[in-house]
Amino acid sequence: MKDLHCHLPFGISDGPPEISESLEMLRIAADNGVSYINAVAHYAPDSRSPVEHAVDSLREAAARYNITLHAGFEYTFMDLLESQEPFLTIGDSSSSILVDFNTDTIPSFAPMRFYEIMSKGTRIILVHPEILFTRHAIPMLTRLADMRVAFMLNAASFLPEALPPVRNMAHRLLRSGIAKLVASDAHAAAGPRRYVLQEARKAVSIQYGEENARILFEVNPDRVLQNLSPYDLNLPEEPFWKRWFSC
Question: What is the pTM of this model?
């Protein structure tokens, strides 16, 4: 599997405080069957060099696990408005960037700003929308998806310990065809933000079938790394009553 959203760099933003925990996360990632990690920190001005240094410090250990590392950023929507620096994408051959709205409200001008960025060749992946939004945001999220904005869900949102509104929204975004990617968004080696990519894959496989799990966790991450659009999943339509009474 390719993990396109993992807060692996140590000592930066809210990632692991020490290199020892980053190394433990690498070990767990290897046990999860991961071969590529987009190792991100939250964007801050002039922070590219520290992120790249932290990732470079982990490359030798990652190579022992046959994991390729790429240094990246998770941007907020406000960063897209204010940053003058070149974007750090999810991979050397990809023009996609990770974007977090970091609020439960989507600005009305967001589609226009996304259009401006995408018209210059940058692709946008919105991360963990199931955590930020409820069903009331579905029309706007659908509008963004129609613009070819991609949506990436957190692996932990499919586990039993996820909050019911978050878990319900994750399934809704899958069934609606809006979300077509899953990543770990791991921040630590243990606790609620631990690495659970393989657990989530098994849960999705049980509920939606192995082929859909393979597309979601393996095929589509590969495709966006190659600058290709993710495939649709073959999922049953959501019952009409769930559209109104969940989330």
Answer: 0.93
